[in-house]
Amino acid sequence: MPPKAQGGTRKLSKEEREKLRRLEQERRQREAEEARIREEEEEAARQERERVEALLRAEAVKEQQRQRVVQLTATAAVTTHLDTTMELTRDRIKDQEEWERMMRCDGLPDPTSVPEMNRYLSLWRADLDTATLEGALAKTHQVIHVISELEAVMEDTGEATEKQLRDWREIWLELQEAQKEKLDQATYHQLLDLRPHLDHETMVYSFFTSSPLVSLALWSNTTRSPKNNCHEVKELGFTFTLPEDLVEAECVVRVMRTEYDHYSKFAPTFNTPNVQETHATLLEDCGEEVEAAPEEQLPAKESELSSDTFAPSPHTHLPACCTPRVAGGGGGGKAEGDGKEKMGAPPVLVKKYRPPHFTETGPGELNLRRYRIQGGVYTIDLLEVPPQPRVLADCTITQVEEVCTVSRVHWVANYNPPAAPEAAGQRRRDPEAVEQEMRQLEKELQKLILITIKLPDSAFWFEPPQMVLWDERKRCWSNEYFHDVKYNEDQCVMQVRTTRLGVMGLAMNRFANLPFQSWELKPQGGTAVSLTLIAAVVVAEFTIMEEGHVCLANLQDGARTALSHLYGKPMKANALIKTLQFYGINLFPDRDSYCYIDGLPTKHRPTEQHLYRCMALVAPAVHFAWSRWNLLAGLTKLVFQMKTKKISPDDTQVGQPLVLVTPQKTCVLECTEISQAFSNNDEDPSKYYADLYQLVLDDLDEGVRQTVQDASPIFIHNIQYMLKAASVISYC
Q1: pLDDT over 70 (residue 330)
Q2: What 3 state SS string does 280-309 have?
């Protein structure tokens, strides 16, 4: 009899173990089948739920699109009515201006009348009084005024024919050429007798006169003494030193500065490039293609707001300095900063990205899309001495020339600079050779004319300018004729040596104050709106008035107040902008300005332009301001602060509401300006607004809404004009 198993348990037989295995397998199969059925049911439920949610989303999107069309159509009806009324207002203002011009009876021609302009030009050319220096300077202010009025007519070419435009341009060219001729004739008559302004001790001729628009200095070393090789025109802050070959020449040095610039407009880079663009409204361009592109995400924390975190989308206008890598083999190349290039590998091609509005220039050519001639134009040339009167015992003999105008002396320096040194690191250079090259360079520089200029006080200089010369052959400003350039920032004095003379200017970077640091649009009692622009250097405040004018309310250049004579002076918006640009303050970018400002991602243009219209409609009652979240929010996301109600002291810690505007919708956000992170979440998802105008109308009370509706069309037009001109959304 076999022994029993320990613990009193019996060992299972093979048949019993097989049975248990089959039972366990059947159990697992049942559980697996039940799990499969359960998963299929859950998947079917999930798909059904997603189908229902997709249908609901599609219905919601469809409903939003329906509301979008309805609301944008309603806004368009308002703006169309305002545009129609504004056209009538503009015609009335134009008729009033023509009537006032006719009633002035000042003898000036009507700039729109070609016969009157031709008659004025003929009488001026035949006027012998304007051939003298005194008469020419006195007439200059009137002539420049006539040219400015004609330019204003040429800019407003809505109803002009091709023949009218051609005639106006011909007269415009002739007026400018006649102004140059009159100044040359006046200079010639002044040089007919050097004796009244001749220093009999040094035998140096020196003369200076000025008017508000023209300053003229004449100088001549009549004995050609080597000691008299330099002269300082204290009134102009201008000093020149002549090289040896010119000291011995019989000539007169003319230094003439004009506050106007009749050269830049002929340069090929003066006007904004003509790029074909679609001028679609927001109703026509909903921005779907732009929104479908991968967009940059806004950093979660303020500390992450840096240029390194911004990755531009394919539709973003990049600045000209961006140089994307073009690598061979499908974009698998390494980044420029890897520093692990393989030996013997082919060089990586670098292709600079050029935005469509970027203007290319030739070698040495000044790009007037990036720079602007400031402080007037200097005409520095050498003139032949006309025949001088001969004094006899009882008479004076004067030779009369047939052509009574100046004759210029052509001069180009024989400048041969030393060859450029070899690349560093190839061999150690002999100190004696280096010293020899320096002596040779100094010797060659002595062949050039040394010019020292104190920057004129008539303009603001935010950074060192460039010295440029007008190249008549290329019809452009060029900087390739100047050497040994030095600038004293404390005294605002520039020193250069030049190989030739002619028309010179000081070129200033147009975008020294852009982009903005902040901006604010604030109503003032319903009859005026203030626009404050805090730029890189200056702070400007403008008052937009209900009567249709704009005035400069305040301008701070650092700690000092500037242009106080313009404060409170009502002007047309475009005239005020041109006046500020004349003084070197450019706060209003052009269409292509983004090409020349580093790190400036522009916004979706139809959305931005429509936003300015909506802002202008409600600006008499709504306070707007910049947001720090806007710059990196993305191409189609426009973010700013808005205040429609008075904030109580308890709400000051919360901050003003943030508004997000996209091509599809406009909403008030949950987050505020002082939030730690940016969020796209709506404050009230149940409400939909197609644009800012519809959102604000729903939020205003009846009294404030009436203030908005009572605003005059010209008031709204000027607000929109200033907002568009400053482009505060894209440039801040």
Answers
A1: no
A2: CCCCCCCCHHHHHCCCCCCCCCHHHCCHHH
- The whole-angstrom separation of Cα 416 and Cα 132 is 42
Report which of 637, 631, 636 is spatially closest to residue 599, judged by C-alpha positions.
Answer: 631
The whole-angstrom separation of Cα 565 and Cα 568 is 8
What Å distances lie between residue 204 and 15, 229, 250, CA to CA?
A: 135, 10, 12
| Nearest C-alpha neighbor of 541 from the set 558, 526, 553 | 553
- Which own/partner contact pairs does 516-520 have at CB distance under 8 Å and 24+ positions apart? 516/587, 516/626, 516/726, 516/728, 516/731, 516/732, 517/732, 518/625, 518/626, 518/732, 519/625, 519/626, 519/726, 519/728, 519/732, 520/623, 520/624, 520/625, 520/626
- 312 pLDDT higher than 50: no
CA distances from 163 to 119, 155, 157, 416 (A): 18, 15, 12, 51
Q: What is the pLDDT of residues 557-572, one digit of tens each?
A: 876 777 889 999 999 9
- CB within 8 Å of 170: residues ≥ 6 apart: none
**Residue in 676, 646, 674, 671 with CA at minimum distance from that of residue 660:** 671
Task: Note the maximum CA span of the chain.
Answer: 175
Asked if 695 contacts 668 with a C-beta cutoff of 8 angstroms, the reply is: yes
Residues 519, 725: contact at Cβ < 8 Å?
no
Per-residue DSSP letter, 664: S
CB-based burial label for 589 (10 Å; 0-12, 13-18, 19+) = buried
The CA-atom distances, in angstroms, between 573 and each of 445, 550, 716 are 48, 6, 12
Q: Which helix (H) or strand (E) holds 271?
A: none
- Residues 235 and 208 sit within 8 Å (Cβ to Cβ): yes
Q: Confirm if 731 and 600 have CB atoms less than 8 A apart.
A: yes
Which whole number is the average pLDDT over 595-615? 91
Give, rounded to a whole angstrom, the gap between the first and last alpha carbons of the chain: 102
Which token pair is 187?
């200079």
**Is 266 in a helix, a strand, or coil?**
helix
Give the tens place of pLDDT for each residue, 531-554. 999 999 999 999 999 888 999 999
Report the C-alpha gap between 517 and 630 in whole angstroms.
12
Please give the Cα distance from 93 to 689 (Å, whole number).
36
CA distance 702 to 698: 10
pTM: 0.83
Q: Which two tokens stand for residue 634?
A: 């993305």
SS3 of residue 606 by DSSP = helix
H-type helices in 110-262, by residue range?
114-126, 133-155, 162-191, 244-247
Task: Over range 396-407, report the average pLDDT.
Answer: 86
Identify the bridge partners of residue 509 per DSSP, sorted by sequence position: 371
Alpha-carbon distance of 205 to 250, in angstroms, equals: 12
Cα separation, 482 vs 499, whole angstroms: 7
In this structure, how many other beta carbons lie within 10 angstroms of the beta carbon of residue 294? 8
Angle between helices 692-699 and 702-710 (to 10 degrees): 140
For residue 658, list its beta bridge partners.
Answer: 641
Q: Are 235 and 260 in contact (CB under 8 A)?
A: no
Cross-strand bridge partners of residue 392:
none
Residue 539 tokens, joined = 């702070």
Separation CA 373–CA 369 (nearest Å): 11
* pLDDT level of residue 176 (50, 70, 90 thresholds): very high
Task: Look at residues 624, 673, 617 and name the one whose alpha carbon lies nearest to residue 644.
Answer: 624
d(CA 16, CA 23): 11
Q: Is the backbone peptide bond immediately before 417 cis, with ω within 30 degrees of 0?
A: no
Q: Kindly give, in sequence order, each residue whose CB lies less than 8 Å from that of residue 332, ignoring residues fewer than 6 positions away.
A: none
pLDDT in tens, 421-443: 655 555 677 888 888 888 888 99
d(CA 11, CA 3): 12
In 3D space, the residue among 223, 227, 221, 189 whose CA is nearest the CA of residue 205 turns out to be 221
